[in-house]
Amino acid sequence: MEKRYFQPEYETMPLDELKKLQDEKLVRQVKRVYENVKYYRDLMDKKGVKPEDIKGVDDLHKLPFLKKDDLREAYPCGLLAAPKTECVRIQSTSGTTGKRVVAFYTQHDVDLWEDCCARALVAAGGNEDDVCQVCYGYGLFTGGAGLHGGSHKLGSLTLPMSSGNTERQIQFMMDLESTILCCTPSYAAYIGETLKEKGYKPEDNKLRIGIFGAEPWTEEMRRDIENNLGIKAYDIYGLTELSGPGVAFECEEQRGMHINEDHFIAEVINPETGEVLPVGEKGELVFTSLDKEAFPLLRYRTRDICILSREKCSCGRTFIRMTKPLGRSDDMMIIRGVNVFPSQIEAVLLNSGYAPNYQIIVDRVNNTDTFDINVEMKEDDFSDIPINITNKEKALQGAMKTMLGINPKIHLVAPKSIERSEGKAVRIVDKRKRLGINV
Ligand code: ADP
Ligand code: ZN
Predict the structure, then answer these.
(1) Residue 214, ligand 1, Cβ within 6 A
(2) What CA–CA distance (Å, rounded) separates 397 from 391?
(3) What is the pLDDT of residues 108-128, one digit of tens each?
(4) 359 close to ligand 1 (CB < 6 Angstrom)
(5) Which numbered ligand comes closest to the C-alpha of 326?
(6) Residue 297 half-sphere exposure, CB side, CA atoms within 13 Å?
(7) Of 182, 320, 318, 308, the residue nearest 245 (C-alpha)
(8) Which tens digits make up the pLDDT trace of 150-184?
(9) Comparing C-alpha atoms, which of 419, 432, 313 is closest to residue 357?
């Protein structure tokens, strides 16, 4: 079979040339960031590092890390490296305690992001004759915008469906003969189940490829989705801080995701000590963006735990590969594709007059995440009549929805009824682990 790439000159670049390209870009990017971003300049000064100390990738370890806390502190514009007037877009994702991560893009940044997504589509076998149904969420979330842009670049017919309204998804899928489906794996599984319930067989649709990511999923889920939809399913990885989906993508070999190394340098570190680990060891993934103009993060700690591999790939791409995230080194949960931090839930409880005595219970039933929060009520509320308690649950649910973007089920429970172990309550019960999902 003929190998196809979207940008072969980069995707198959010999490793020595790739390293040279990264060296040049890094030197330029560090200088730009130092000159334009006071926040990072201060971090470098504190560490005693000057732009001249960075002569190439081998010096990368000298630079300070950026963490999610830094993004919060610098919110909203403190990490901008280009004038706001040169930016053409923002995207955003939930961050800790109410402050969201806001990422800025110049037109150049949008272009490179969309190129990365187009690379993913081509690596999965997509081409300009495909009909690409994008049912990742549109709006602030990066999923919709990223794959939409990639599909356009490739020249596929793009269906900007956004998520939800499964009836309409299926109608368009059938009537317009979609061949590529882009969404979260749990939504793909849900669409697959719905088609089955409606009596459709896999061969009744024209789908042939799925591009699924933004949340953890298993090989077992992959097989189920592939069987129900009659497609080949590919993984895609990314995060808003770096642009969105498309930072890494699977090729036909499906043994890890190729990281777009002409744009992003990946390191794996020991999350406790910050020490850089040799390729092949398990640790926290850290990224440096080499080309971005508006929001160029250097040594950004993703909190995703994974393993890198330089093993040669039969697809011909030279880019390093990463495993699926094998877990997180913080307490972030991904529920229905949305990032949720316990600290956000605590903030809502405190604002609403509750003590932070709560327990989050997450599970996956019929391919959809369930999300329940048990909250201990105040002593005086305990004797309240049931209708008042129901109303209080509803009010709290509304406040949670505003903060998190998704609706939990709230259960007000008796004071002191949430079990404490060694005095400390177990905050998160993630039953999705029983399905082998790396949460
Ligand atoms: P996204 O739009 O990709 O969800 P966010 O910035 O909201 O971007 O969330 C990024 C996080 O989502 C990543 O740090 C990672 O934990 C998770 N994630 C993204 N893609 C995948 C994937 N393919 N498999 C597992 N987790 C993923
Ligand atoms: Zn490959």
Answers:
(1) yes
(2) 10
(3) 999 999 999 999 999 999 999
(4) no
(5) 1
(6) 26
(7) 182
(8) 999 999 999 999 999 999 999 999 999 999 999 99
(9) 419
